[in-house]
Amino acid sequence: MNLSYLTENYFSVLINNNPDLICRYNLDKRIEFINNTVTKVRGLPPEYYIGKSIFEFGYTPEFVEKFSQTFDRCVGDKQNIQIEMLFQKEDYPIKIFLITFVPIFDTILGTEVIGVFSVSRDITKEKNLEIELQKQLEEHKILAQRIIKKANKLQNFSYIVSHNLRSPLASIVGLMELYDAVKEEDREEIIGMLRLSVERLSQTVIDLTEAIQINQTFDLKIETVNLKKLLTHIQESLYLTIQETQTSFEVDFSACEEIHYHKVYMESILQNLITNAIKYRHPNRKPIIQLKTMILENGVLLTCQDNGIGIDLERHKHKIFGLHKTFHGNQDARGVGLFITKNQIEAMGGTIDVESELGEGTKFTIFFSL
Amino acid sequence: MNSINLFYVIDDDKVHQFTIKKIIEYAQMTSKVMCFDNGEHAIVFLTQLVKENQIDKYPEIILLDINMPVMDGWEFLEKYVLLKPKIGKKVLIYMVSSSNNQEDMDRAKAISDVSDYIVKPITKEHIGKMVTYFQNMQIN
Q1: Closest C-alpha to A279, from A249, A317, A247, A303
Q2: How many CB pairs under 8 A join A and B?
Q3: Å from B101 to nearest chain A CA?
Q4: Which of A79, A169, A220, A227 has its CA 20 to 30 A from that of B92?
């Protein structure tokens, strides 16, 4: 062992007991010194390495190349360089090393580099921990997002309850008060109004129950849904409406013909979009509904575009998917369809978005995550 | 004595429209009630009045619902503020909604043109207070 440059014995003790692998190379990348740690790491005595070059140990070409390049940069720049390197060799488990290259100068104040020290630290454990931590962080983020979504939904529900349930209830309370105050001949009319309000209240309860059920169902039965077949089925059930309004369809499911989904939801979603497109058709043209699928990296897009009257999104975007929100003054609009549709899509982890041009048409884009 | 000649009720709820009409009828007031199914109908009507300068058809009090199709109560207020200088008459606006949501209440109270926020159902006491307030305002 050539330890002549170590004037003090304790240096040798310090270096040989350092957990890091310390190595001195000449400019030909041959090892001139290596500390005893190598025996612990690789099971071979230091003597085995002395005089050999980095190219002789059967390391992977990538490892040798990166090592060699960094070595050269250290010599050229006359500066310390630190890199992380993946160490792979057939008979050893994969390890990650943090390697510091330190230029050795000819004299204390010298300018000429005559060799390089490498100090290699095994950071496999820390690295794996970091990766594990990162993974957990990502999971927590997703979890947090889910909780925020749930909280928003809850808030939305509390708003719905505070408005949609209170509205018919307030009518009833108001009418009851009126009933006591009016003359006999006016009471029958009030009873009629009461009946109307009670019907509205019970319908609201039915709608809300349906929405709550959607959000509470956890294990939804997933099956392969053939979109074309489903569409045909919906077209059959809407046969009269389609005939009457002379609605035509332009369908392109070529990118994705089948989706793994809850069949009842899928039918309800598609049926709602189609019914809406027909309901809000333009008075001066026959309705055309374009349905198209697209494959994305992490899911499937389904677009439903119509040539109907459109909706002023600047005014209504924030409430288009709300319960009992209607926009066109249509008498048969109950403002339930899109609310249910959105809930069904979100319960399955997807999203729905809308674009529209007033007087031109509306396009719904649904993302089904896989 | 200054009295209220005309109420506007802007609300898509027919039952609510009916209730207010009956309350006013039984309060033995001479006031008339005009109902609009949404904000847009009311704005179109008001704009027409301004154009034709039909001062006698301006209301003294507007009872305005929040949630309505086509144009909701908030949007009506935005449009009304633009018309207001041309109307040139003090009109009391009450927001009347079934929502007891604090956000809605705060939002309404932040609008200077809104006199008060009433949670449905509206009663004859509410109407009575409005009339008193209106009359005091005229005297002062």
Answers
A1: A247
A2: 75
A3: 7
A4: A169
ipTM of the prediction: 0.82
Answer yes or no: do B15 and A324 touch at CB < 8 A: no
Whether the per-residue pLDDT at A331 is higher than 60: the answer is no
pTM check: above 0.80: no
Cα distance between residue B138 and residue B134, in whole Å: 6
CA distance A321 to A276: 13
DSSP β-bridge partners for residue A99? A83, A120
Q: Catalogue all structural domains in chain B, each as residue range(s) with its CATH number.
A: 7-139 (3.40.50.2300)
What residues of A are in contact with residue B37 (Cβ under 8 Å)? 329
A295 pLDDT band (50/70/90 cuts)? very high
Q: Which two tokens stand for residue A213?
A: 């059920």
Q: Does A155 touch chain B (CB under 8 A)?
A: no
Give residue A159's identity as a one-letter amino acid code. Y
Percent of chain A with pLDDT over 90: 41
CB contact under 8 A, A186 and B22: yes
How many angstroms separate the first and last alpha carbons of chain B? Answer: 13
- Chain center to CA of A90: 37
B26 with A181: Cβ contact below 8 A: yes
CB contact at 8 A, A268 and A326? no
Tokens of A106: 């000819």
pLDDT band at A99 (very low <50, low <70, confident <90, very high): very high
CB B21 within 8 A of CB B127: no
Q: Is B6 exposed, middle or buried (0-12, 13-18, 19+ CB in 10 A)?
A: middle
* Closest chain A residue by Cα to residue B28: A182
